Amino acid sequence: MGLHHTKDSRVKQGNILILGLDFAGKSTLWYRLKCNDHFLTIPTIGFNVDMIETQKDFTLTFWDVGGQQKMRQAELDESFSVS
Questions:
Q1: Residues that bind GTP, according to the entry (predicted)?
Q2: Domains plus CATH for the chain?
Q3: Is 24 annotated as a binding residue?
């Protein structure tokens, strides 16, 4: 997880990367944390990105990466070389 503070902003930012094998429950965990509820999910193709802003000037960005073998390394290489 990365945490940084920019000079021109008082907002602190963090990144959380949710990784795991296919059908491990990564998206289910994320929806449970975000909504405090259980949702029926389908396999993630690629990745989902969502942000939460707290009342204390803190922003968390969640990256939920699909767990299929063919997606794991390709998505990580492409996504995090840009960010």
A1: 20-27, 67
A2: 2-82 (3.40.50.300)
A3: yes
